[in-house]
Design brief:
2 copies of one chain form a homodimer. Chain A contains 11 helices and 19 strands. By secondary structure, chain A is α/β, with parallel strands linked by helices. Chains A and B meet through helix 2, helix 4, strand 11, strand 12 and helix 11 of A and helix 2, helix 4, strand 11, strand 12 and helix 11 of B. Chains A, B: Belongs to the alanine racemase family.
Chain lengths: 382, 382
């Protein structure tokens, strides 16, 4: 074999012919637009929707999702990192871009050059941004993040008190936005939510000219008091359920199908997959599907998740492999799926929120871990 | 804010200045070469090493890893999907490329055009590949995969018996390689391993002119009988431990560092992160780090994993967020890390195998889920 002569390969097309694709991710940009509208109605005309497009728009594709949100009227966008901010600036030259994860002082000059604003999470961040304003000879817009109980990012209570006492700390800056972030708004009643709201309100009233922003997706549905001037929906825009205690008010955005490579019959007593964790107690019919943890189908789904054939759940048996997963078809009566057929991973019968439960996680992690090997099909917003 | 005039942005450099990077993934290509050498010595000069580069070389980067393996002498490569095969053909015009996940019949003509071989997993696959040979007017090289107990892909026992009885089934094909795959070789003694070896040997002797391949990374270390002509190490090449019962004979390939965005002091009774799952029973000092489940730092690490500051473990407290994780620094005596400092996620104090335990998974999933937001630094093989 190693002596076989290999010719220089023929020119290679950009990708395989799509009929040979093994995983197909369909993203409905129309549903993203519709979700924007649902949320707009929920908050009313006085409140704007920011576009939260960090983590490649929760795995959906920032280059596709951000223009849809801009098209529906969003002007303020949030990303997590300096690099994401530059990527977004290329996509949306006219958007207002805020970076939750700072990157000061190193990113300051690039932020100024590209009209990007770091979210200022401390008095130190504020001082660094004032340095930038001084260097650039401009009054820079400033976004101040108050920590009201998340204890992750933002000004502490004592820093907030110092800032209120000494307005000189923001001299040279134009405080355009004051914000905080809910920790527990996904629970219908959590005492921390109201307490965060109260702390935020007390602080925010010291910045009468600034816009105020508190609510994430869930916060939007908890109380209209939480809306202020700007809400920051992420997961709800991408179709996850912001009100887990009841049915999902959002439109589903993502569908994922994976292809059967092979079916096989097993005898009673045979095992399947790595470590032979699953042993069949009666004869079985299984399908091996081109989907694995390298595609973001979490290994924790092993023995727990279901894929769907024409609406019928087919349980995952044995461990999830890197590129493959096996499902049990033994209960299917007629219309058995064949190699080449597609099984539903996400779609009308299984939402990302539902699949997440199999892996003991949340829909956010399902979306953000969607793999790179799928063919991505974007359905345009109408 | 929404009326603020935004200028058309200045031209945007390709990426943020590297000092503002928040996550840094360092990949040691020299360690990949060294691992190839370790495995070559283990199998001896009569046995070749295939390059297993599916799933973007286990998350490492196929475009970087595959040429290193080719440079150390590997000529036969395995990928999972038709799309990966075309990608690899662009990277290595002279490699022999096999596709584990088929894609027949749709991919057949592209395979033939680019001298790529599908691994034939059934008599049906064999028939489809013979069709391809007939269409192209060539005798095509064929790789036959026998299922010896994994029950995932490959010819079943009855199909194997039919093939042996009727050599006409491979007429028009040149069977160059016969292979199977271990299910439990990561366990030092598992009865299935020896039974798979025996089934494979019985089958393989019917193809005296074909090369034989059975062992994956762990199989290489279990018994020299398992080596045959070609071994297919994946995880060991990328630095994971193929012998979990003892110390790792491989060189570490991956290092990952994440940056502290902010530190904060918490009072007794305060909570941290989403759902306020962690409540401090005494005053604490924490660091918020730019690393989240969107970066492949699994949400299951919440409350369990550790990051390292100068070799000292700092436990993750509370939930892992999409872009952030919080660690407890309260136990650090002196030389406290500051915002901008790097914490070790993977490196000398924590291997991918070790981090995997925190999330109740395996090192493979840690590697294949490494996120897209890291700056990737490749150290060249010397």
């Amino acid at each position: 074999m190693f002596l076989r002569q290999i010719q220089t390969a023929a020119p290679i097309d950009k990708s395989i012919n799509s009929a040979a694709v093994l995983g197909r991710l369909t993203i409905d940009l129309g549903a993203i637009a519709a979700n924007h509208d649902v949320l707009s109605r929920q908050v009313g005309p006085e409140c704007k929707l920011a576009g939260v497009v960090k983590a490649n728009s929760y795995g959906i594709g920032m280059d596709k999702a951000a223009p849809v949100l801009f098209g529906r009227g969003s002007r303020r966008f949030f990303v997590a990192t300096p690099e994401e901010a530059l990527t977004l600036r290329r996509i949306l030259p006219l958007a207002e871009i805020a970076v939750l994860g700072g990157g000061l002082p190193e990113a300051a000059d690039e932020y100024i050059a590209h009209q990007i604003e770091p979210v200022l999470n401390s008095l130190h961040d504020i001082a660094l941004w004032r340095d930038g304003a001084r260097r650039s000879g401009k009054i820079l817009p400033a976004i101040i993040h108050l920590d009201t109980g998340m204890n992750r990012l933002g000004l502490s209570e004592s820093e907030a008190a110092m800032l209120i006492q000494d307005p000189a700390l923001v001299r040279g800056l134009d405080v355009i936005l004051v914000m905080s972030h809910f920790a527990c708004a996904d629970e219908k009643y959590h005492p921390l939510t109201q307490s965060q709201y109260e702390r935020f309100s007390l602080f925010a009233r010291h910045f009468p000219r600034a816009q105020k922003s508190l609510a994430n997706s869930s916060g939007i549905f908890r109380h209209s008091d939480y809306h202020f001037d700007l809400v920051r929906p992420g997961m709800a825009i991408y179709g996850l359920n912001p009100t887990p205690e009841t049915s999902n008010p959002m439109h589903p955005v993502v569908a994922l199908d994976a292809r059967i490579l092979q079916t096989r019959t097993l005898k009673k007593g045979e095992s399947i997959g790595y470590s032979a964790t699953h042993i069949f107690t009666s004869p079985a019919l299984t399908a091996t599907v081109a989907l694995g943890y390298a595609d973001g189908f979490h290994r924790a789904n092993g023995g727990k998740a279901r894929l769907y054939w024409r609406g019928i759940p087919c349980p995952v048996v044995g461990r999830v492999s890197m590129d493959l997963v096996t499902v049990d078809l033994s209960h299917l009566k007629d219309s058995l799926p064949q190699p080449g057929d597609w099984l539903e991973v996400l779609g009308p019968h299984q939402s990302a929120d539902q699949l997440a439960k199999s892996a003991d996680t949340i829909g956010y992690e399902v979306l953000t871990n969607l793999g790179a090997r799928y063919q991505r099909i974007y359905r345009d917003a109408v």
